[in-house]
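Case study 2.
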Amino acid sequence: MMQKSQQQQQKPILKTAEQIAKMREAGKLVAEALHIARTLAVPGTRTLDIDQAIDALFTKHAAEPLFKGYPGKRPFPASTCICLNEQVVHGIPGPRVLRPGDLLKVDTACKLDGFCADAAICVPIGDTVRPDILKLVKTAEEALALAIKEVGKRKRWSEVSVQMQQHVEKAGFSIVERFVGHGIGRSMHEAPQVPNYSNREMREVDFDIVPGLVLAIEPMVNFGKKDVQELPDQWTVITRDRLPSAHVEHTVAITENGVQILTARS
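Prediction:
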């Protein structure tokens, strides 16, 4: 995900069918990485264990882990962003152990043969996750599915994002506005910004939905208020009210033949 910018929206870089096919190969690897994460998402696993397994997968396939070394106040130190409970995005893997009732979010991306893919999953840990937290996860997943369904039918992104926002708010939750999705291709973060909500500010950077557009769509849904803050580690973002957050993501291509989820597991 990328931090929302108020700068004028740049023109998206449209992709050819051949380039989208290459992105699909990167997407398959990201999907496999997240499948590994899901199998490890049990009580007793360290978040570092998940990161190391995904890093080993990328190494095996000669893929570049796009998060590792990503520039910031200090370079990001891992191949995955792993968040628990009130952590929203950019969590740093470490010795913390998964416990029953936790809500795990794993986000990762790689570059393979010159092209990128990016995706995230949200996994309840054990059988004791509260029903209202399960509803939070379901709502985030539904918002992503809704966006993927609607992006092939609409002319402008704002027509999609407003439906995402309405779906989330109708369920009683809130959409994070500080961070948004993004275009993706040869670089992980390309134009356009891809918000999960619609207001006057973001409609000013709205964009047309046309064949060749490839987007990383990633709703971040908070149990409480939308407000977030960064921890002193200079990366991890948490909800300001310390209530749980859910985050899911797919890399999606708009083609002449319809919408393709490039990070779906084959």
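Helices lie at 17-40, 47-60, 131-151, 157-170, 200-203.
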